[in-house]
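Deliverable D4.2, example record:
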Amino acid sequence: MYRRILLIVSVLAIVFAAVALVLLAAESLRWRYVHDSPLMIYAGFMVAGGAVPYRNFFDMNMPGTYFVMWLMGTVFGWDDSGFRVFDLLCLAGISVATFVWIRRFGRMSAFAAAIVFPLWYLCQGPEISLQREYIALVPFTVMLAVATGDADFRPGMRTMLTGILAGLTFLVKPQFLVLSLPLLPLLFRQQGVASMSVRRRVVWFGAGVFLPVSGMFLYLLCTGSLGPFVDIAANYWPLYTHMDKQHVAISGFRRLLYLVTESRDGLMGFYAPMAVVGLVVLSNTPTERRYTWMMGGLIVAAAIYPAIAGQFWAYHWIPFFYVALCAAALAVRPVEKLRTGDIAPSVAMVFLLSALASNASEKLLWSWRGDKMDNRLKGGVPDEVSRFLRANIKTGDTVQPLDWTGGAVHGMLMARARLATRFMYDFHFYHNISSPYVGKLRREFLNELSMAKPRFIIQVVKNRPWPTGADTTQDFSELQVFLKENYAIAQQGATYNILERTSR
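Output generated by the structure prediction step:
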């Protein structure tokens, strides 16, 4: 009787979650991108126009991100609806790959895992959409399916393909290589490659990683952008990674305490205990017990992932939530194999599915009523900037944003406006100002700005993040003098000014 009731409740919870997922996915087609996704998309737009990363524009992301955005815009168009379609296709790919690699633990667990992460992802709203961790999750989930799947591969082929997929994640986020490490002991001991020595398997995996990574460096070398890339990686990455979530520069023991505190806070919640419950259920299955260590290793690696780069924004926790939710889905075991003691974990997983589905339903009601989420759908700085540029920009005109995540770059993307200098945003001019490297960036920007003489400059003055703390500033006096002498306000909004060049 317990089994029959649990079967009915589990199926109803999965169906409820699946329906909520489909409705929320359809509603998400109306979302407007926020935070820093438009910056990366605009970089892809410039690559589509022939720009070379690092040489033609300054940014600190890996080159794989730009080419994903280039592919997205080229295929689906450079507007929000195309971005949303691409986002949902990526989510569908993650869901299918998740089902494939979890299926060995039971079909109900596979269905639950394939639904629960996409539902969690969409419940977070547009703030984390198309972030780099999410993009890297696509090849990462395929890698999990390949490494743990039952499909027959030639000796070494599975290992090399796993390495190639791990290398693709590196091109988007280098830290993802840490997440591939728990797979290696299992991968090297699989029966399909039992005739190969461990040394040969390591060589095959290393060769797989080497192929995409060497291709990236060859591209950078041939385009003359390897030097600028190394310059950014060596000089700017250490500055940016030593800032906390409030953009305060920190170092030494204070930074160590920050890493520990943020890691602890990120692990506090319902998902980590549910992941442990799933691991306990998996360890009670003798035939699948070897996967318990792999899954536990993935959870640990994903938990320390944000601390590797010292960044703890919500999207940096995407890998952890993905792995934790997959582990939690293992609590939904096939009902015919349940013992009385297994009912409690399955009930907990049913509760998790129902809670996420209820959260999705609540967000749908907000959106249908026009509350809360609706302010992200239309209007605001991107639309106002885009309308102005479309009405006033002429062939050959360039535009320079003085912004970071305030909507100026998004408006430029909507208007297909050309960037005047190498700098898409100005955040890096205001922290670590005593650093010779930041001083060099400031001088390069002023020189390029005076040479380019952009027709319009979009200056976001309110509701934008500023670095604070020691060795930071909100003053750039040389830039302000340049603007005062050469530009006048052409349009003023609540948070921004559009300046037009007055001098010839």
